Amino acid sequence: MKDFLQKITTEGKAMYLAYDHGFEHGPADLPGKSIDPNYILNIAVEGGYNAVILQKGLAEKYYTGTKYQKQVPLILKINGKANIWQGGDIYSYQNCSVQYAKQLGASAVGYTIYLGSAHDGKMFADFGRIVEEAHKLNMAVIAWVYPRGEFVKDETSKEITAYAARIGLELGADMVKIKYSGSRENFEYAVKAAGKTRVVLSGGPKVSDEEFLQIMRDVIAAGAIGVAVGRNVWQHPEPLEITRKIREIIFS
Ligand code: FBP
User: Fold this and answer.
1) Closest CA to 75 of 29, 18, 130, 30
2) What atom of ligand 1 comes closest to residue 144's alpha carbon?
3) CA 5 from chain center: how many Å?
4) Cβ neighbours of 80 (radius 10 Å)
5) Mutation to probe ligand 1, out of 40, 202, 232, 233 (largest number of atoms < 8 A from CB)
6) 163 carries an active-site annotation
7) For this structure, is 177 an active site residue?
8) What is the rounded CA–CA span in Å between residue 45 and residue 245?
9) At 88, is the pLDDT very low, low, confident or very high (cuts 50, 70, 90)?
10) Residue 145: is its pLDDT beyond 80?
11) Distance 203 CA to ligand 1 centre (A)
């Protein structure tokens, strides 16, 4: 099996800085300096992240052809949705082709699947096609798999999180990004379900340093290879300080 993850991992481990929140949550999620994409790109470089995660527009205007392109790899998020519609059954439309992601300098593409939505089948179909396109171009594919919708009683239960991880494996993802399922034991089950697909933690809303670092310890002990973190780093008053602590857990 070809290792498409080589460019975005270090000895099989990974630390990514996610910054697609302006789209997914709106500027309310980007307090203070974090509204400026350059602020985030500097954290990604100085923090030694394995990649920064951006939507197409940010890549075009702040990454491609700039100094950052040489300093930190890019994971391009190629679908997205806003958080205004609350009518249920979400579908996150693709807004960028894999080919264009490659042109922008991406080493990998990311795509969110809402497992449990009435439209999850369409997202599975999109994802299946994206895997074929990306692998032909020698790019890795990361599945954000988030259980959502009226039939999902608990979005972070042990069983549904492992199901999310398994969907990543079954669809051919090189990596799956899933939420914390409450304990090391629960997360271990998800890592097991993901098989040869690598697992990273999806950071979540800002919590205390102690809480976040404990979650990091749990998921790494459970077999995750790292984290794709956003708010817990760039909403932090000392982003490089918390980065250093996260790094220590992942890479030691
Ligand atoms: P965070 O570490 O800030 O949670 O970022 C991870 C992420 O997956 C982002 O890529 C995305 O914008 C966000 O979480 C979506 O989270 P949700 O759909 O739960 O609001």
Assistant:
1) 18
2) 8
3) 14
4) 19
5) 202
6) no
7) yes
8) 16
9) confident
10) yes
11) 7
Nearest CA to ligand 1 atom 15: 24
Q: Which listed residue (16, 62, 111, 146) is catalytic? A: 146
The C-alpha angle with vertex 157 and arms to 142 and 129, in degrees rounded to 5, equals 25
Report the C-alpha gap between 176 and 112 in whole angstroms.
10
Residue corresponding to tokens 């999850």: 120
C-beta atoms surrounding 141 within 10 Å? 28
- Of 21, 155, 201, 216, the residue with max ligand 1 atoms within 8 A of its CB, to mutate for a pocket test, comes to 21
Q: Please state the pTM of the whole predicted model.
A: 0.97
Whose CA is closest to atom 7 on ligand 1?
A: 202
- Over residues 10-33, the pLDDT tens digits come to 999 999 999 999 999 999 999 999
CB 206 within 8 A of CB 32: no
pLDDT at 1 over 80: no
Q: What does the alpha-carbon distance between residue 5 and residue 141 come to, in Å, rounded to a whole number?
A: 8
User: The tokens of 225 are what?
Assistant: 């290879």
Which residue type does 168 have?
G
Of 118, 113, 116, the C-alpha closest to 151 is: 116
Q: What is the pLDDT of residues 38-82, one digit of tens each?
A: 999 999 999 999 999 999 999 999 999 999 999 999 999 999 999
Domains of the chain by range and CATH?
A: 6-251 (3.20.20.70)
Q: What is the pLDDT of residues 197-248, one digit of tens each?
A: 999 999 999 999 999 999 999 999 999 999 999 999 999 999 999 999 999 9
The pLDDT score that the predictor gives to residue 2 is 83
